[in-house]
Amino acid sequence: DRYVYRFGGGVSDGGSGDKNLLGGKGANLAEMASIGLPVPPGFTISTAMCTRYYDEGQKFPQSLRDEVAEGLAHIEAITGKVFGDHDNPLLVSVRSGARVSMPGMMDTVLNLGLNDQTVEGLARAAEDERFAWDSYRRFIQMYADVVLELDHGAFEEALEIAKEDQGFTLDTELTATDLKALVVEYKKLVRAQWGKDFPQDVHDQLWGAVGAVFGSWQSERAKVYRRLNDIPASWGTAVNVQAMVFGNMGETSATGVAFTRDPSKGDRAYYGEFLINAQGEDVVAGIRTPQYLTRAAREEAGAKPLSMEEAMPDVYGELANVFDTLETHYRDMQDIEFTVEKAKLWMLQTRSGKRTAKAALKIAVDMANEGLITEEEAVARVDPAALDQLLHPTLDPQAKRDVIAKGLPASPGAASGQAVFDADTAEKRNAAGEAVILIRTETSPEDIHGMHAARGILTARGGMTSHAAVVARGMGRPCVSGAGSIAISAKDKVMRVGGREIREGDVLTIDGATGEVMAGEVATVQPELAGDFATLMVWADKVRRLKVRANAETPLDCKTAREFGAEGVGLCRTEHMFFDAGRITAVRQMILASDEAGRRAALDRLLPEQRSDFAEIFAVMAGLPVTIRLLDPPLHEFLPHEEAEFAEVAQAAGIDVDTLKRRANELHEFNPMLGHRGCRLGVTYPEIYEMQARAIFEAALDVAAESGAAPIPEVMIPLVATKRELDLMKAVVDRAAQAVFAERGTEVEYLVGTMIELPRAALKAGEIAETGEFFSFGTNDLTQTTLGVSRDDAARFLGAYVEQGIYPKDPFVSLDVDGVGELVRLAAERGRATRPDIKLGICGEHGGDPASIGFCEQVGLDYVSASPYRVPIARLAAAQAAL
Ligand code: PEP
Ligand code: MG
């Protein structure tokens, strides 16, 4: 087996198709080299080696040492430099690179190969002593940090002291002599903290770095990131070893990061940042404020320092050509790292660029319109879950804003919440149900869990490509970065700006689209659903087969759902109507009645209320099917539970407190989820379902008469386990229909069907379909009853289950395809065998989950039903499932 793949100098052992083996970075370096772009030569140690490394107790096989030697020889042959040579030393960078980019892993060691001898050789070869010693001190600092994992604060402090001693403010002011002294300091720090001398053998340095990359795959931070992003531990990381090129060789050298289009808004414009006379980490770390890439961007920002387009027009022109080559080649927006060494351009990385939902949408639609990709590819490119960001409110432009600071618009969306100054507090407060804004001077991978828990992120330092900005965009969190006017003390939990103080718990608002930071909460407005969004939805609708309905029970929800493109209501939970202030008293009287006559009297009072509820919904959904589910929850849910409420309710219901309490006691259940609920209520108190059915048919006839567009009611019976239950309940519904039609002298079409939400119902679906005209899979209850896991209590242990790989994802969020899915598949088959045209849908929470929608397409359901805000997500996911 081979583990080392070379690239550069006309050789490419791999290509962009080898991401699983070479990681994203390695595969794309090989690909860029193969299409003739300037890539410094190097080699990639494959992810398979990472897996083997862990399998074999974190040791390297001898064969790898031989292959690495060949890899080094490849680099030496092309560069004419020799690794460890005292006169003409080869320096390399060592970087991790998994299949997908993963903050939380060891990132980069630069300048590897320097020691007390080679530094002298580098100084002579480059004819620049200062450069050589600056590279050496950077190398020790980085190696100590990421490979030896020593306290980097001490090294930064030593650097600060070195500058202060001379009265300097910039690193660049330090002379070769200062830097030599600093190297001595650094080596002392290594010795003191590590207990050993800084490794002088360049091969030891290299193996140390390779081991650190593999080691970082199992770091806590990487594990957290993998868990949040569903990345399996088995993937492993690759290691990329590449000849150094130097952006810090004076004024004709530079380093930068760029996107081929604006990753925030999606505009077709080169977008990026660079620094003259600097190395890569300077840009990302936000140590110096980077300069703009293009003149247009600089002018728009009103910034002074020249853009790359102005400062280095020739190299910029070359870079722009590379951008175009890459976009045409990869047919996607690219995120690039480059270095200019003495006016020569080198490409260090390209990958498909992370982008906001807004940019993803715009870029996909633009590229299809430009003919670069097809409409179907555009549909496939947009992550349905990311649409969530676009469907949620933004700040009301009319609302008053108390702007206290302005930073960069790093990730769009607006968020309000309490100020918190560390990730752990963010996580704690979020878990307690509070909205928080995480405020940091700058973020690092250690803050990821807090960023995830926060509604928004605010930093004082760092550019548009800083850690905070990149991670926030990926997570879909609004972010304002580099708000330079604020001073943050994480220790004292306070942020100061313009003479004002924001302390932990104070509410503030950030607008990630403008970069504004505001004190207090600011009102929001609904999103714009026209433009690119509408275009993509039209394309999605052309390819999807599954219909999309909404779970909705108020006219407002139905309206929202219709605007989002719902093609009917898949689940109207009637019990929500029972809780309404005007009705709850009648509902309670019904429950407290001692006989059928008493229940009927109370139900008579509920009838007109239900009728008008249904009429409103039918009017909004005119011409579309509406599935109305008859009462489901156990009756005690409608009775008071708090002592304080009893007297009030007793009075309203016209009975004494003791009677009320006795009845509440009678209704008490040890396990109400498996108790007297669903059709079991209809079996014991058929008059309840009779009233509901009557309300449905009367409302349908009213709306048909008024509007001419007859609604199509689908009456749904919950929690059925046997055919006999459904037979009985269907008879109740049919009787009510016949009675109403006879009274009115006119009819509407209707269906009677059932939820399939119990394993027995799924198994006996063939029989149940003899009566049921449609099935709607209630996968919330079906998951609960199949797994034997209470949907209300699962949170306590499901996290551990997912962490330990027992279920790949929370089965109440994403369908357990293997288990619950098998019941769904089987019920669909058996139902169809009995009644070939039976209508099949899903109305559990899974109906809005993209992965579960993929499964519904496979099984051939007719529709999915999701909450109104998830309807567009479901439309897009359904289209992707059909592609
Ligand atoms: C279900 O069980 O999946 C369902 C949709 O019904 P409910 O969530 O109301 O129990
Ligand atoms: Mg249910």
UniProtKB/TrEMBL annotation:
The keyword Metal-binding applies. Residues 434-515 form the PEP-utilising enzyme mobile domain. It holds the Pfam family PPDK_N. Mg(2+) binds at residues 757, 781. It catalyses: pyruvate + phosphate + ATP = phosphoenolpyruvate + AMP + diphosphate + H(+). It is an enzyme of class 2 (transferase). This is Pyruvate, phosphate dikinase. The lineage of its organism: Bacteria, Pseudomonadati, Pseudomonadota, Alphaproteobacteria, Sphingomonadales.
